[in-house]
Write a structure and sequence with these properties.
There is one protein chain. This protein is α+β, with helices and mostly antiparallel strands. Among the domains are: about 160 residues, Four Helix Bundle (Hemerythrin (Met), subunit A) (Up-down Bundle), CATH 1.20.120; about 110 residues, no CATH class. Helix content is about 65%, strand content about 10%. It is globular.
Length: about 675
């Protein structure tokens, strides 16, 4: 399997280079056969890399420890699901996953556009295959996952214990789908610059690809936050870790891009800005991969320092140079069709929204690269911690939350005083009343008061939009409010799906404000029958547990959780000791939304810190995290809203066009 996988990588490299050459020659000489040849080569590369990736998975499942990568990331006793996940558990395999996803996306793009966007496709194919060539060169000469070991490993080292979690199966691939997905809008943007077709054609084509990449990055970030929350035992879900930041930055850039392309579609504005955003988003996706894979920054996510860093640095420099050169070349063709008519307009709100997204992205970028630059120029190590990121990003994020509520209701072109008064009076009063009520009830945290008030404001603006639309349906078609809302969503999925995404983000903001601003913690060493208290809960140490399997030994404790004199849950925090790697992990136990019935107001988060069976003393760390469940609920709403937004739009013209086909099918039956 190793020989087959290695051969397929080499053959895919040949196909990708051929695709670049034939696409370029076909475009410059207007030879459609060469362009088609390049597209077929791109599809062949997709098939070959799929075979290569499956070969490596087969080697893991067969415990083929003659391959160095398999020996380093698997062991015979490792569950099969983690043997498959070990494909992306190390550096070389994760690069193969990157290439596999990119080749698969390229296959889909070529297939989708075999009869459309023909002027763009040579540039799209050449760009995607240039990116793929870079990764295949790395896999061939720098980090080959099929490299043979110097000796014969009998059992393997095993996957890092921290990675042996169910989210290891979904979190890295989801993030990679987002990272690599950004390459498709970037490729169409570069193709538009090369061909000079800089209207809305490329924007319309990549709309769903952009949403898909943004969605995968967002869900991957939430999955990573939940994984850190339940696995690391520190009571939190986001620590501004460099690799966490690496996934956040392209998500922020894509968020700005998704909002601003609507202005280009409707008004013919922000053409240069949109091109810059798609270039920045892709550069940040490569930068994120560079941070994770090079080891230049210490992180619980990153690999050891390796020779791969200079390759990524050079590739990133080439991308920036080529992209900006093309952008400057085509600037005369990127002039806006219209200008902003008023400071108070939806166009301005979208523009300010973009500026805020980019401002957050820049602060995250600067805080992430500052340690690298300091070490490079002064040879001293520094770190930028959560206080710095929070100091800058919290107030900017609150401004972003405010603009999220303004955008849907403010008028296009120029908002009148009446428009502002009618649309915003009730949402503003509701938000202000919420903050005032919380202040009266004893809340004094200024950012939390602002966050909860703004959350209610945004929910109010979304509610106003749904209510007005439903009332209009009621007046025109006699539909009740529920049916009216359903019809609204069905007829304008992009708009109302976007509103649901905003609702999801409101839930996330509220969850972050509650859990970050009002977390409590307590520690105690207990013996059986002894108790500790936190907030309105009392926890009693009931018993100890232990078990063993082929992969690990388990030591745990049973805690009874009491609220108001009634036992509401029994929790079992544990320590797992993995034999192959001789490393322990902390397994938390949480009373929260995943119990039945769900408990949403706060999480009782327990950690077994230490155990001394000889003395019977077990040390526990307990956190009380208010409203953290809203973050995960917001993620589910975000999923729902994005799925609605990407569904095909219903229109009367579409229905009339489809009618003859339906009648023909009925006649045939």
């Amino acid at each position: 399997m190793g020989d087959l996988g290695n051969f397929c990588i080499l053959l895919a490299l040949v196909c990708s280079v051929w695709a670049i050459l034939t696409s370029w020659l076909g475009r410059t000489n207007t030879v459609s056969e060469l362009v088609r040849s390049g597209e077929r080569a791109a599809q062949a590369a997709g098939v070959l890399i799929t075979i290569s990736a499956l070969s490596l998975i087969k080697a893991f499942l067969d415990d083929d420890f003659s391959l160095l990568y398999v020996a380093q990331n698997s062991t015979r006793s490792q569950p099969s699901v983690y043997k498959v996940a070990a494909l992306w558990g190390g550096q070389a395999g994760s690069l193969l996953l990157w290439a596999w996803i990119l080749a698969s996306f390229s296959f889909v793009v070529v297939t989708q556009n075999r009869r459309r966007n023909r002027d763009l496709m040579p540039g799209v194919t050449a760009t995607l295959m240039s990116i793929l060539t870079f990764f295949l060169v790395l896999l061939t000469f720098v980090a080959n996952p099929f490299e043979r070991g110097t000796g014969t490993a009998l059992n393997g080292t095993g996957l890092n214990p921290l990675l042996q979690h169910p989210l290891m199966v979904t979190h890295p691939p989801t993030l990679y789908l987002g990272y690599v997905g950004v390459a498709v809008p970037f490729a169409f943007g570069i193709a538009a610059l090369l061909s000079g077709r800089l209207g809305n054609e490329w924007i319309v084509t990549i709309r769903r690809w952009s949403l898909f990449a943004w969605f995968c990055l967002g869900i991957g970030i939430l999955q990573g936050g939940y994984w850190a929350y339940v696995e690391l035992g520190w009571g939190g879900y986001w620590a501004w870790d460099p690799v966490e930041n690496a996934s956040l930055m392209p998500w922020l850039a894509m968020s700005a891009f998704i909002h601003s392309v609507m202005i280009q579609e409707k008004k013919g504005m922000l053409k240069v800005w949109n091109m810059v955003l798609v270039i920045i988003a892709f550069c940040l996706s490569i930068f994120g991969t560079f941070i994770t894979r090079s080891g230049v920054i210490a992180s619980v996510h990153s690999f050891a320092r390796s020779g791969i860093g200079p390759w990524f640095s050079g590739f990133l420099l080439v991308i920036v140079t080529v992209s900006l050169s093309l952008l400057v070349w085509r600037l005369p063709k990127l002039k806006a069709d219209h200008r902003l008519d008023s400071f108070l307009s939806r166009e301005s709100a979208f523009l300010f929204n973009n500026v805020v997204f980019v401002a957050i992205c820049f602060t995250v970028f600067w805080g992430t690269v500052y340690p690298i630059l300091t070490e490079a120029f002064t040879n001293s190590k520094v770190s930028v911690g959560p206080p710095w990121f929070n100091q800058w990003n919290v107030p900017i994020s609150l401004l972003l939350l405010f603009l999220t509520g303004v955008g849907p209701l403010i008028a296009w072109r120029r908002a009148s005083a009446r428009n502002l008064r009618v649309n915003f009076t009730k949402p503003i009063l509701a938000g202000a009343a919420t903050s005032l009520l919380l202040f009266i009830l004893g809340m004094r945290h200024p950012y939390a008061l602002a966050a909860f008030g703004l959350c209610v404001f945004v929910m109010g603006t979304v509610a106003v939009e749904f209510y007005r639309g439903a009332r209009a349906r009621q007046a025109v078609a006699g539909e009740n409010l529920v049916v009216g809302v359903s019809t609204l969503v069905a007829r304008n999925k992009r708009r109302y799906g976007g509103y649901l995404v905003h609702v999801g983000m409101v839930f996330v903001f509220a969850g972050v404000a509650g859990s970050a601003g009002f977390q409590q913690d307590a520690s105690a060493t207990l013996k059986r029958g002894e108790s500790m208290s936190i907030g309105r809960y009392k926890l009693t140490f009931v018993d100890t547990v232990s078990s063993t399997d082929a992969n690990k030994d388990v030591l745990g404790a049973v805690l009874s959780v009491d609220r108001g004199g009634v036992e509401v849950a029994r929790l079992q925090p544990e320590k797992w000791f993995f034999r192959a790697s001789e490393q322990p992990t902390t397994e938390t136990a949480i009373y929260g939304m995943w119990q039945w019935p769900p408990h949403l107001s706060d999480d009782v988060y327990t950690v077994l810190v230490d155990a001394n069976p000889q003395t019977g003393g077990y040390t526990f760390k307990v956190y009380l995290n208010p409203l953290v469940s809203l973050i995960w609920i917001g993620g589910f709403i975000l999923i729902l809203g994005t799925h609605i937004a990407v569904l095909p739009e219903w229109s009367r013209a579409t229905a009339l066009a489809a009618a003859p086909a339906r009648e023909a099918r009925h006649a045939a039956t």
